[in-house]
Structures are given as structure tokens and as C-alpha cells.
Amino acid sequence: MTRINENYRKLQAGYLFPEIARRVGEFSAANPDAKIIRLGIGDVTLPLAPAIVEALRSAAEEMGRETGVHGYGPESGYDFLIEAICEHDYRARGVEIATNEVFVSDGSKQDSGNIQEIFGTESRIAVTDPSYPVYVDTNVMAGRSGNARADGAYEGILYLPATEANDFAPPPPEEPVDLVYLCSPNNPTGSVASQENLTAWVRWARQNDSVLIFDAAYDAFIQDDDLPHSIYEIEGARECAIEMRSYSKRAGFTGVRCAYTVVPRQLEGTTSDGERVCLADLWSRRQATKFNSVPYPVQRAAAAVYSPEGRKQTAEQVAYYMRNAALLREGLQAAGFGVFGGEHAPYVWMKTPGGISSWDCFGELLSRAHVVGTPGSGFGACGEGYIRISAFNSRENVEEAIARIRRVFSG
Ligand code: MLT
């Protein structure tokens, strides 16, 4: 008899985005003439920038020549990409990251889901509520939670409410926790953590010997240069934080797949008999065993993001989406909706009109406005009463969606 991992049975319903896709598919099949505007999952809509396409093309051609064969790559990534990361994403902002602290991967979803494997199953985790569902679900699968309660929250996980009152950036908890997932700019609330907030987190983590898992997948959307792009801009973070970055949103790589995780050499965990162990060594061992590096052309494409043309072209794409975010924010605010985020992130976080539930709002938006959003409650109990609207779409569709939402909810 083959026993299953029963932790999977604790998971609530399906994963959020496939569930939304299922409901949208059903509606679309029943209403084939509806012109649906998809502002649900944060998936890019602009074509790949020319510099990226050129890098992919020429790397593929290179691999077609006898002298250009690239088989298995180095498991942490090619030096040309890692050096560009250290130079442009870190040194340019005054942060020194060594090349052996960077681990290139095929996505931050994977990294943020897999990183928990290097920690003990008895580790207590905390997440901000709402948060990206991968953080909680992967820890539930690994057995770090009890059962789900009626509001969908799991016993044994500490949820830190991210609310209007704390600008959606909760302070550290009173109690010690082993692992804390933070995300800035935040998915789903579109908020951004301040220097003060992150400083408080780093201080707390060092005092409690905790590890922060800092998801910075949306850092390119920060509009104010004084705001921290990296947790390592905070003094002491090298001793307590792991950071994840992605090319998905910043350079349109959702279908290309490339990201990276930084694990500083100073960062340590503890064995049951008190021995201190370098976490970068464990992550390196995990990746070398379970992952076979990102394809060469994809890493060349990621490196092209840092070329002068790549930087200019991808910055223009980010600016395009951020203009959409500003239009959503201003257009919905002007119509009297409670709207947050959208200033340093490609998401706006809107209070549901009339206080209806998140899923009811999702249903109303879909059936009456033919607009897809993401129900806030899908990101955690504190997301109830909100809906997330993504800025990833064409200008025309975003303007049309704003007009439809205003019409439906004010009529
Ligand atoms: C989202 O919509 O939250 C993201 O696109 C999902 C992801 O990055 O996996």
C-alpha cells in the first residue's frame, strides 16, 4: 500500500490562479461573445524586448555550431550572468554580493517554494497576510502546519496582518519565529517596504536568530530611488536574509523562465546539537541535486537585460505597465473606490464595492464587466474584502476595464 503525503490533503481548494482560470473558462464557454479583459494573474503582455530576442537568437545559433555546443551548464549559473547580476543589481546600489552567493534558477516561484526544504520541518514560519500563496502552500505540503481553519488560515503558521493601518507592511512579531517571508514591492497589495520597516525586520531577525526570505521579484517597479530595492541595503541583512529576484515581470520572462536567489555566505542555520551550518552550502547542494541549470540561451537573454539597449528597452516596458497602474489607481480612486498600491508595483489593491466578499466581487466583475481580477481572500484571510487588479495589459484594455468597472459598480 502506497501512502500519500497527507499534508497535501490539508491544502484548501486548488492553487489560486488555476482556479481563477477555471472559472473564467467556464464563463467564457457560456458567453462566447464576451470580450474578457484579463487583469487577474500578473502575466506580461508586451512582446520580448528586441535586445532579449537578439540574445536568444544568437545563443541558439551559437549552439547550432560545432564550436558553440553548450550542454549542462554550471548548476548555479554562467559567470557572465552572475557577474552582471553582482555588478548591476547590487554594486550599482552600494551592495557587495560575491559570485558564489548567487544561484540562477528558472523562476522565483520555484525558489520561494523550494527554499523551505533546507530548513527543519519543525521550523515555525510566519507570513504577512495577505501574501503570495506559494509561501504558505509549500510549507503546508512539507508538514509545517496543522489543518486549515474556517477562514482558510492554517494552524501553526503565524499570520501577520498587512492592513491599511500599517500601510500593508506589518512590523516584526513579539514572538520568535524561525522563518519569515517578506515581499517588497508587495504581491498582492502593491505596497512597498520602507527603509525603517526593513531595518526593524533585520534587527528583529538578528536578535531572534531567524531567517528572512525576502522576495524582491518586483523590485524594478520601484519608482523612488531612495526606497530599498534589496534587503542587503539594510545593515546586518547578510547575516539573516535570503533574497529572490526574477526577470519575469521586469523583462517579460514569464514564458522564458529565469530568476536568481542570493544566499550570503555568512548566513547560518543550526543543527539539533547546536552546530552552525552555512545555508548557502545547503542550497547549493539542493540545487545541484534537483536542478540542472537554466538553458544557455535563456541565461544569455537574462544577461542582455543588463546591456545598454536591454536596460533601456526593459525600463520602457516597466514604465508602460506603471502608467497602466497609475491609470487604474487614479481612475478607480476618482470614482470613489478605496484603492491602494500601484505606485511602486504593478498591482492595485481595491476594496470591494459595498463590502461584498472578494469572490463575489470577482464574480460580479467577470459576469457584469467581463473583467478578471484576483480575489484578495485567495492571498489570505486579511485579503478578504479586497480584489487585486493587475496592470499587465494593453493601455487600451486597461482604460476600457476602468470604464467598465466604474459603470458596473456605480450603476
Ligand atoms: C501573480 O499574479 O501573483 C503572479 O503572476 C504569480 C506568479 O508570479 O507566480
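^ D-malate complex. The chain has a mean pLDDT of 97. Residues 41-43, 109, 187 surround D-malate (CB under 6 Å).
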